[in-house]
Amino acid sequence: MDESRSGQTGRQDAARSGQEPLHPQDPYGTPPYGGPGPWAPAPPVQHPAMPTPPAGVRLPAHTAHTTPPHGTPAPHGTPGHGTPAHGTPAHGTPGHGTPTHGVAASGTSSHGTPTPDVPPHDPGGTGHTAAWPTPSGHAPATPPHGGPHGGAPSGPGGGRYDPWAVPAPPPGGEVRIVEVVPRRRLIVVGALLVALLAGCVGGAVGMYVERTGGLVGVKLPQADPESPERPADSVAGIASATLPGVVTLHVRGAGAQGTGTGFVLDDRGHILTNHHVVSPAARGGRIVVTFNSGERVNGRLVGGDGGYDLAVVKVDGVSGLRPLPLGNSDSVRVGDPVVAIGAPFDLAGTVTTGIISAKERPITAGGRGADTDVSYVNALQTDAPINPGNSGGPLVDTKGRVIGVNSAIRSGRGAEDGQAGSVGLGFAIPVNQAKRVAEELINTGSATHPVIGVSVDMTDRSEDGARVGGGDDDRPGVVPGGPADKAGIRDGDLITAVDGARVRNGEELIVRIRSHRPGDKLELTVERNGKERKVTVTLGTAGRE
Questions:
Q1: Distances (CA, A) of 517 to 435, 521, 541
Q2: Chaperone as a keyword (predicted)?
Q3: Is 464 among the residues known to form the active site?
Q4: Catalytic: 109?
């Protein structure tokens, strides 16, 4: 240390004495104590007051802080680091009026040129410098060249240099920070847009496919056209052959109206139906006949019989009539297939099928009104659906022949209005009986009833048989000279069978007798005083009504 000081002192003395120094001045030599040197300490690192600009942000070129290359002269008026100011002795004690350590006086350069004010040195080493002298009314000036120790130059705004600070805008202008979108971000956004578009298109296509079943029109498989011809014994064949001979009847009169069915008997226009269908027209009513072809004509009542529940209607001036062939009800067997055709609930041309469920089923129908008769029918029972409106329609066999006239059904409970549907219990008048009655109605206008000449007790519910006599009127139990009287039947006898068929009451006895013609012979089983005997009776005629 002492040697260094002595060397410096010697150079200063030589300078003052005008002698040439023994060695040239070393620019990298140790400056005088307290003077600035080339290795001035760097300013302390400060944290950025603002966030670092995003990658890709371009900063203005004039605001970038770059270090000049080595050897570049400092701006005028700014002393270099470690270099004494112009006019300042390099060594030795500063002259009179000259600041120590080669620094020019405040406000004046060594040549008399005004220089920036330099704040006083911090003698205490506290790290703070005195305020810059400023004109009145202005904020204190900041040192233009670094901090208190002659370090790096200060940053914009007069503070310490902040490498993280946002560059100051150029004078008179405004810095626009343009964000450059990275290429990767563009790719991601594009991919998302493509995926969104694909999802929309896929959803639309899926909805269309769900509604229409495919991208093309739906074409369902279908069988090739076949011949309309059907076997004659099939249901379709039977219906095709029978329907042209079936008609629908609309009847109005006597404050009542109704709908029923009928079928053509001959080419003269005679139509057979039930008596209860046309009874409203018996006293001047109107009957409208509708054929299967849709042709409508007026009909007139030829005759009817309430006891058999049969009637004949005639139409005139109709050509192309299709009479239905008649079968033989005696040849029918239980289990034979049958087809019923009619207009249930005014639905013309309805075809149903079934079988013969039973034969010779004694039933009674009608008699509910004051002017209606009770019908006694030894009926054919079928499970082919028969409903209101089917009455009077044909019941045909597999050959299309009429074997019965649909007349009655057994309905469930609560069917008091007569409009209940079928429960599989339908009844038809055997065609053999219908044929005889129809012939009589056409030929004479009325029908005859076979009788045996007895009256029976209709109130007896013992189910043991038909009791002769016991009526409430004054008529005798056995008509004198009648068929029963001639066969030896007496009042009080119990008739238990007809031709071997069991009879349980008076209604069944009447049904059995009316299923035959007048003049037929019947074998009756009669019980008297606990003894049975068989007698033969020839049926008589009750007369024409």
A1: 11, 9, 9
A2: no
A3: no
A4: no
